Amino acid sequence: MNAGVIGLGLIGGSMAIDLRRRGFAGAVYGCDANAVNAAAAKTIGLVDETMDVETLAARSDLIIIAIPVDAAIPVLKKVLDIFQEKGYRDKVVIDTCSTKALISDSVEGHPMRGRYVATHPMAGTEYSGPWAALANLFDGRAAIVADAEKSDPDAVALVEKLYDALYMRPTRMPSDGHDVHVAYVSHLSHVISFALALTVLDKEKSDSHIFDLASGGFSSTVRLAKSSAQMWTPIFLQNRENVLEGVDAYIEKVEEFRDAIRSADKEKLDSLIREANRIKRIIK
Q1: What is the C-alpha separation between 136 and 138, in angstroms, rounded?
Q2: Which fold has domain 178-281?
Q3: Which pLDDT score is estimated for 214?
Q4: Strands 2-6 and 116-121
Q5: What is the pLDDT of residue 110?
Q6: What pLDDT, on the 0 to 100 scale, is given for residue 204?
Q7: Can you name the CATH fold of 2-173?
Q8: How many Cβ atoms are within 10 Å of 23's Cβ, its own excluded?
Q9: Which spans in 101-141 are helix H?
Q10: Cα 19 to Cα 1: distance, rounded to the nearest angstrom
């Protein structure tokens, strides 16, 4: 089949690489609002050709929308409108956005809603653009399929086959449940990383040696602060209620540490750290 990728950055570009080399797609077409990114994706071989959305929809059996969620909503509507206008009743479109409820709700009631499958491949890095695309990026990761009951069964089956080709583990859940979970395991960690980077950058203004002392622990914790504002600002805003709940819960834990350190409460500090160590049973 032919796959079309709208958004030729990290996620879209990495999908393009593996879908073709693993035999899922015979041809991969691309579209990107940024002309430089589109040209680069063609030059480095991520896609066979680049084109506009209308042409891509006509030539692709499966369309992947891999752009920031605020931009993805109107593009998804446009693709479904094209499906309806042209009578494309066997094509499928997915998104890869990090929030699911708002984008899913945005096409509720659309005559072609069944040809859309809401998804979120749980993989990525802090880098962006076509040059950031990586082979094997998705191997072994979870791929969320949200609100599967709202999509046509054959569309869901095709999308789960796609994620099998990427060596991912498809998992179904409702979009609102997805947004709660990712607020804690993904969105909150980005807030923390951005805040830590700002804290240290402020300190660096008065202490030029602070980065000389930065070690692996700091680098790994602040790595996500390199992530794009273009992607993360709309994520935080669209999932703000869940993100705020996570931030408030995190602040409570930070205050527990602050109070224990302030009062030199060794037993409390030991208890907090040992409790946190339980994460080793989950993440290795």
Answers
A1: 5
A2: 6-phosphogluconate dehydrogenase C-terminal fold (1.10.3660)
A3: 67
A4: unpaired
A5: 98
A6: 75
A7: Rossmann fold (3.40.50)
A8: 8
A9: 101-106
A10: 10
Burial (CB count <10 Å: 0-12, 13-18, 19+), residue 39: middle
How far is residue 245 from each of residues 174, 195, 214, 258, 276, measured CA to CA in Å?
A: 19, 16, 31, 20, 19
**CATH 1.10.3660.10 domain range(s) in the chain:** 178-281
Judging by DSSP bridges, how do beta strands 62-65 and 2-6 pair with one another? Answer: parallel
For residue 124, the SS3 value is: coil
- Residues 189-206 as b/e (b if ≥16 CB within 10 A, e otherwise) read ebbbbbeebeebeeeeee
Residue 3 CA to residue 22 CA, distance in Å, equals 13
The mean pLDDT of 7-33, rounded to a whole number, is: 96
Query: What stretch of H or E contains 243?
Result: helix 240-262
Tell me how crowded residue 258 is: count the other CB atoms within 10 A of its CB: 11
